Amino acid sequence: MIDxxxxxxxxxxxxxxxxxxxxxxxxxKVTMALATYRKLTGGKVGPARCVQAAFEYLLERESxxxxxxxxxxxxxxxxxxxxxxxFKYYL
Length: 91
Prior knowledge:
Elements: E1 2-8, E2 13-21, E3 24-32, H1 34-41, H2 47-59, E4 70-72, H3 76-79, H4 83-86
Parallel strand pairs: 3-4
Antiparallel strand pairs: 1-2, 2-3
């Protein structure tokens, strides 16, 4: 289960994310600039859904324990260069 809660709707937006599975619970703080949100989604889904989709992408590639506890969503592309082209499939 991935739970995304916005904590600041400014720019950048800030989200508290909780990922729970049979192995336990992990918590994260994620930032995302409004321009990044628009680039990733074209405004077709809400910001929280965008962050949830990013976690779905990440969790297919690494364990929840391997994900940084605090990061900006643009950092995903530094670790996974296909993020920009494959992200749309997770929306």
